[in-house]
Amino acid sequence: MRLTNVTHLRLPFGRLWGYDVSASALGRRLPVSFDQRLHVGAGARPGSWMALSFRLPAHIRKEAIAAAWLAVITRHGTLRSAFVPGDDGEPALHEIELGPGRWVEHEVAPGQAVNDALRHVLDAACSPYQRPSHRLCVLETAAGLTVVIAADHAHVDMWSMLVIARDLLSALDAGEAAAASLSGPAPAFVEHTQALRDRDAAPDRVRRRWEDIIADSGGVMPRFPLPLGTPERHPERVEVRDVFGVDDAAAFAAQARDDGVSTLVRAVVAMTAVTRESADAPLRAVFPVHSRFEETWHDSVGWFITNSVLESDTAEPHAAAAAVKEAVQLGGWPLADVLAPWGGMPVAPGMFAISWLDLRRLPVRIDSVGLDAQYVSAATDTDGVMLWFILDESGLHLRCRYPDTIEARASVGGWLDLLVARLQSDARRDHPLRRT
Q1: Which of 101, 168, 287, 407 has the fewest CB atoms within 10 Å distance of its CB?
Q2: Structure pTM?
């Protein structure tokens, strides 16, 4: 399943509908996670959401989709919560109740792209302090319906979007029994937040390693090692690149197995090599890892991602494997405590982050090909570099967001050129699956 951007999303022209649920007053106060506090604390703004789109046959009625959506909301607690500015200056999270609402048509103006119309709707509805900050939309055409489910990032991650889509489709299949078709409430994300708060503090060795990596990055989180232009937010440039298809993906995975490592590690080897070649520096990046440490959370919706740091200085499989293992371990501790000496995450312009998602290994599946499903990110301004890898049954592709400056186009674009060439070469070299 591809990860694309709302400006690149393939959408048919049709009538654009949004479903407005009814919302109650604020209820009891709920715990806020470290990452939620950072994200929501940045304030109300466009482009803070993520979404998933898929297609349905024309005979499915919007009323059935609305009923299924309400069943999904009933199952997942984070979808029934809302942020407000707290009295202490920090975002506060409260429980809310949501109920049936109404479909509202959003005009696609003459000359306006459907993508732009959808973007405006989601930017307004899915801002961090909206109540609720998620939205179900449908593009209606004679050939069928395109469903777009979006939510502010504070409430979802990419795994969560699959859970939402799966549960919505299950409820649709059940028809009028939609609410009863979902197997009871899933464990709520706020329970996970509280569980992390109750964990033991990180040991000294973990704290020292964080200190070392941040010090080596100039006192801040790791930054992209090549020029990006002026250190301020710019309109984003988004590149989506197909790295390789099914055959090369199989060869790449086989080569990793021969080396006794994972496909992720092989990709880290390639990134380490091209970073050394282009910037004469080690690969050092923010590295998001999931915090669904127990199977309990596999069917839950929330921001089950914690940030870690990856440092790889040797383009060799076992050294890269050790770097990945360390990154996973560094991300396994409550970050609010670990990063307290810096007053939170010490972010600076140019921050470099790398995310890896192997959809084949997730315990949640949908028919992404039959549904023409796509992950969709918002469009925003940025001052850093964010790289996503998506690996599924069709192969490997990457998406990269960076500031659209002359310097960043040359630096990041050139780095990506080298990386894709290296990955493709590695997939075809010295393995019987690809020998000719």
Answers
A1: 407
A2: 0.94
